[in-house]
User: Fold this.
Amino acid sequence: MFTDDRCDLVQIDLARVRTIRAALIAPGAVAGLADTLNALGDPTRVRILDALSHGELCVCDLAAVLKLSQSAVSHQLRLLRTLRVVKPRRDGRIVFYSLDDQHIISIFRQTLQHVEEQAAPVPAKARRARAR
Assistant:
C-alpha cells in the first residue's frame, strides 16, 4: 500500500518528459476542458443532463421533471448553453433544450458508467485478495 506519493529516488527520464510535454493539450483547451468538467460537477446540472439525455425538453417540462422552479432551471441552462453543453431551439414562444452533440452524450454516459462501476459491490474473493 502506498503511504507517500513521491519517489524515493529522484531520477527524471528527460526523453519521456519531453515527449509527454510535447503531447499535452494547449493551455486554452485546458481551460475550456476544466470549465466544462466543472459545469458537470454540479448535482443540479447533472440532473438536467440526465433528463435531456432522454430527449429534448422545454424549460417548463424540464422544471416539472426535476421538481425545480423554471428560474432555477433557466439559470443552470444559461451556464450550460454558454459552455456549449446544451443547445436551445425556439418554437414560437417556447424554448426547447437538448444536449449539444454526441460528445456530450458520450461524456455523460461514460462518466455514469464509471461511477456505477465504482459503486458496484466488490465480491468477497476480491476483498480477501485486496486485504493481503
Summary: The mean pLDDT is 88.
